[in-house]
Amino acid sequence: MPFARPKKNPAPLDESALYDYAVVALGRRMRTVAELKRLMKAKVEPGGNSAARIDAVIARLKEYGYVNDADYAAYYTKLRQENASLGKRRVRQDLTQKGVNAEVIAKTLDAAYEDVNEEVLARRHLERKRVKKPSNEKEAARVMRLLLRAGFSTTVIFKILKKWDVGDEALAALDFVEDENPLQ
């Protein structure tokens, strides 16, 4: 039997149905307050008291402990650090995109990356991606771009490349390219 097609214009949800919808959404995966608001905004009629209804549902979810941006940020940071071996910059960028408050992000990242050696984390990231020692300038640039996307500082990247005996000319060329195109 084929799947039922969703209704084109479903009826707007009242506060009770909106709460149930939010609980189901949180049951699928953890979400930030901003993500939940975005999801719920599509389920209420525009204008009117829809913002008040959404805020009431969010307040109720917070009261029951179903949604907490600080816990979300800590859990997300731990996963991205341990499983994906990502740097502090990348995790900050991802949390900002998800709508977590800047103060919460700063506290969480300071605590999570306090005792972490960024060079070891970057090497673990390279191992996870199965990156080999670069043999020429083009491959060194590829490694640098990979580590920049993963959120590591140029200082750490140059340390790794120097330990891999990448030539000074290649490092100077990479430094020049990095100055022209800052990623921050």
Short summary of the structure?
With 184 residues, the protein is an all-alpha fold. The protein folds into 3 domains: 15-64; 69-112, Arc Repressor Mutant, subunit A, CATH 1.10.10; 118-180, no CATH class.
Description:
The protein is mostly helical and 184 residues long. The chain folds into three domains: 15-64; 69-112, Arc Repressor Mutant, subunit A, CATH 1.10.10; 118-180, no CATH class. The chain contains ten helices and no strands. The chain has helices spanning 15-28, 33-41, 50-64, 69-82, 88-97, 102-112, 118-128, 137-149, 154-163, 168-180. Helix 8 (137-149) packs across helix 10 (168-180). The longest helix has 15 residues, at 50-64. The protein is elongated. The chain starts with 14 loop residues before the first helix and ends with a helix.
Features:
184 residues; mainly alpha; Arc Repressor Mutant, subunit A; 3 domains
What distance separates the N and C termini?
50 Å
For the biggest sheet, the summary is: none
Oligomeric nature of the chains: single chain
> What share of residues is helical?
55-70%
